Amino acid sequence: MIYRGRGTETVALKDANLEIKEGEFVSLIGPSGCGKTTLLKLIADLVQATSGKLVVAGKDPRTARLDREYGYVFQAPTLLDWRSVEKNVMLPLEIMKYSKEKQNKTAQRLLQMVGLEDFHKQYPWQLSGGMQQRVSIARALAFDPKILLMDEPFGALDEITRETMNNELLRIWQETKKTVVFVTHSIPEAVFLSSKIVVMTPRPGKIEKIIDVKLPYPRNIDTRESKEFFELA
User: Residue 176 CA to chain centroid, in angstroms?
Assistant: First the structure.
């Protein structure tokens, strides 16, 4: 993957060969600028590859995007401050002109899943950072996608909130059976969450190694204190 500017070329990714199986939780880690977010954007068809081939849920990235095969959670919550929590979750369905009944039922179900059913009438500015990201996750799941793409969603949270969100995300993943691709700079976070970790080199980003995380699910505080966890992290 090459970014071209005014007389310049930046190689963001090179020789990236990766297969992600359905239902896996895969974390991408590596130094800043190594292409983690670029790889996520390629999967999402937010940027187009300058060479090579991508297959997403058995389709090319553009078709997968149009078929709403994935949900995307950004680094910042990207919620609309003038819409209530439930209205933010409903937004994708509203844009696609789903029925009001479908919108309401979906928002109710997803807010219950992320533990915010009692906050459905609140506005984003009334919520903590962790709660805002829960709303973002609920919104990303509105179309019931097969894949959840997450770009450092907990990077701005304090450590205690971050650990809580890690636990919540694992619970949601185990409930929904989605395929998750998760970008992080935190090795302990990647070890705690993932079934597989993809380690990338400095730019131009290459896949240096792939680590299978054998820690059993469900994971909890005992997992974080285990010898196996410390050896990996």
Answer: 14
Q: Kind of pairing, strands 179-183 and 207-212?
A: unpaired
Model confidence pTM above 0.90: yes
Residues 114 and 158 in one domain: no
Q: Are 136 and 153 in contact (CB under 8 A)?
A: yes
Interhelix angle 159-176/100-113, nearest 10 degrees: 120
Torsion, CA 65, CA 185, CA 16, CA 215, rounded to 10: -90
Longest CA–CA span in the chain (Å) reads: 54
Domain count, the chain: 2
Residues 159 and 87 in one domain: no
- DSSP per residue over 45-56, as a string? TSS--SSS---B
Q: Say which residues have a Cβ less than 8 Å from residue 127's Cβ, sequence separation at least 6.
A: 85, 119, 135
Spatial contact of 78 and 140, defined as CB atoms under 8 Å apart:
no
Asked whether residue 110 falls in the same domain as residue 200, the answer is no
How far is Cα 203 from Cα 164, in angstroms, rounded to an integer? Answer: 32
Mean pLDDT, the chain cut into blocks of 10 residues (233 residues total): 67 83 96 88 90 90 94 94 97 93 96 95 96 96 95 92 94 95 96 97 88 95 94 91
Extract the tokens encoding 165. Answer: 């969100």
Residue 10 is given by DSSP the state E
